Amino acid sequence: MLEGPAGRPLVGKKVLVTAGPTAEPLDPVRLLTNRSSGRQGFAIAASLAALGAEVTLVAGPVSLPTPPGVKRVDVESAREMLAASQAALPVDAAVCVAAVADWRPDEAFGVKLKKGKDGPPQLRLVENPDILATLAVDNPQRPRLVVGFAAETNDVLEHARAKLARKGCDWIIANDVTEPGVMGGSENAVMLVTKTGVERWEREAKESVGAKLAARIAEALIQS
Ligand code: CTP
Ligand code: CA
């Protein structure tokens, strides 16, 4: 196998990263969206590129600079994120960090809805496609390594294990978003949950979590 020069073990490898929230239009001025700064996903993309990977970063609406050496594709909705992610295939690894809106309004109106005597509109929501689960489906284009995130508020490990099984991915990075300073903040305290075990990583800067995960991805891709 061709390995990159020292310190760049991912030269020749392609990786897809999704990051940020998605935004689902209700009308031209109103959106349904999620809380996500995009910082963790961008940090992971930066670290993977620093190790030599060819990185496609599919990003929802965030205000962050593009990491050096990363190909960025900006999207808004979950359906756009799925299409852009599938367009980036084939890749060796996919890391889904995005906080995808689980639901979208069933209809996006072409003109602004107005307040009126009928009161607020009754919204009907429909479920968005699951990008991680779609990428993890066993088929010839499946990345060798598919990694998901799980932001939880309770029973973190139990939910993460259930997600690992349900999504068909290889690893879940689980974090407790009730920890002060994590959501929108600069640090993260995560667990790496695989089919064989759990590792608790110490609380550290999102950049350090990104570097550690990128190094683990490099190890996994070089071994397999
Ligand atoms: N994810 C995705 N597409 C979706 C929903 C989630 O790709 N439509 C990915 C996220 O990027 C993350 C993982 O799935 O890597 C877990 O997301 P999460 O919201 O925690 O899981 P859900 O299956 O949506 O479950 P719930 O929100 O009910 O906890
Ligand atoms: Ca969700």
TrEMBL record:
Pathway entry: Cofactor biosynthesis; coenzyme A biosynthesis; CoA from (R)-pantothenate: step 2/5; Cofactor biosynthesis; coenzyme A biosynthesis; CoA from (R)-pantothenate: step 3/5
GO CC annotations on file: phosphopantothenoylcysteine decarboxylase complex
Entry's cofactor comment: Binds 1 FMN per subunit.
UniProt entry keywords in alphabetical sequence: Decarboxylase, Flavoprotein, FMN, Ligase, Lyase, Magnesium, Metal-binding, Multifunctional enzyme
Segments of this protein annotated with the region Phosphopantothenate--cysteine ligase: 15-224
Reaction equation(s) it catalyzes: (R)-4'-phosphopantothenate + L-cysteine + CTP = N-[(R)-4-phosphopantothenoyl]-L-cysteine + CMP + diphosphate + H(+); N-[(R)-4-phosphopantothenoyl]-L-cysteine + H(+) = (R)-4'-phosphopantetheine + CO2
Entry cofactors: Mg(2+); FMN
Sequence ranges assigned to domain DNA/pantothenate metabolism flavoprotein C-terminal in this UniProt record: 10-219
Residues at which CTP binds: D102, K112, P129, D130, I131, L132, F149, K163, K167
Record-level GO BP terms: coenzyme A biosynthetic process; pantothenate catabolic process
Gene Ontology molecular function, alphabetical: FMN binding; metal ion binding; phosphopantothenate--cysteine ligase activity; phosphopantothenoylcysteine decarboxylase activity
EC number: 4.1.1.36, 6.3.2.5
Family affiliation: In the C-terminal section; belongs to the PPC synthetase family.
Annotated function: Catalyzes two steps in the biosynthesis of coenzyme A. In the first step cysteine is conjugated to 4'-phosphopantothenate to form 4-phosphopantothenoylcysteine, in the latter compound is decarboxylated to form 4'-phosphopantotheine.
Protein's recorded name: Coenzyme A biosynthesis bifunctional protein CoaBC
Species in which this protein is naturally found: Caulobacter mirabilis
